[in-house]
Amino acid sequence: MKIWKGLAGTALIVSLLAGCGAGGGNHAANNESAGGESSGGKSVNLKMFIAQPRLKEHYDKYIDAFVAKEKAEKNIDVSVQLEMPPADTAPQILKTRLASNDAPDVFAIHAVNEIPPFYKAGYLEDLSDQPFVGKLLDSVKPSVMTEDGKIVAVPLETLSWGYLYNKQIFEEQGLTPPTTLTEMKTVVEKLKQNNITPFILSDKEAWIPQLFLPLSIGQLVNTENPDFIERMNQDQGSFTEMKGMFDIIDLVYANGTKNGLEVGGDDGAAMFAQGKAAMWVQGPWYAETILKSNPDLRFGVAALPINDNPDATMINLSTSTSLAVSKTSKNKEVALDFVNYVLDDKDSSAFFQALKFNPVATVHDYSSYPWVDDAMVYVKEGKSYQDLRIPQAVKDESGKALQSYIAGQISQDDVLTALDKAWKSYNKVNK
Question: Signal sequence span per UniProt (predicted)?
Answer without folding.
Answer: none
